[in-house]
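Because showing beats explaining, we let one protein speak, sequence and backbone structure tokens together, and leave readers to judge.
___
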Amino acid sequence: MALPNIFRKNPIKNLDQRNLREAEVKLKVKSDQLQDDIKQIENEIEHLFQKSKASKSQIDDLTIARRIKTQTQKREMKVAAQAEVEKEITALSNLLIIKEHESDLKATGQWDALQNIPPEHLEKYLSEIQLNQEDRQHQIQMITEMTSTALNPSMEPDEGLDDILKAMEALKEGSMEPETARENVTRKEEEA
């Protein structure tokens, strides 16, 4: 269950803790699968760099470099997807804490304020804070402050073949290992 669907279909007062926990578990499984996919892609990038050490022509180099670029882009898409899933997990965890403190929030008058927050603002705020179960008073205070806070994230990577080809050349010269090449290329993609 995607987080936006939870907020659009149900007002906060109608959300069920059991359903929220089930959605949280599903998202954690999805995050783990994405992490496994990322690791497989990183292994493939390393394998392609290893293969590039034996290439004999510029055409082979370009072909391998394009494959590495494709794998690097796939990795970045998976990393972005995992980051989004992690934000959803954070928001669900925070929403569960709010639901657990519902009676306290009603007693302080904050429950009505929470229900009046537009769903998209509540979703955004819940995905950007980290509530903990430890201090009940602090929880109530943070939830109270939620009624007026907003932030905005963004990221978009794009990269050419130059860095990949340079890494492949360094591999052929013996000045770099495939694992180091993969780390360099994927780090540059993350910084872009």
Summary: The chain is about 75% helix and 0% strand. Confidence is low (pLDDT under 50) at residues 147-159. The radius of gyration is 23 Å. The first helix runs from residue 3 to 9.
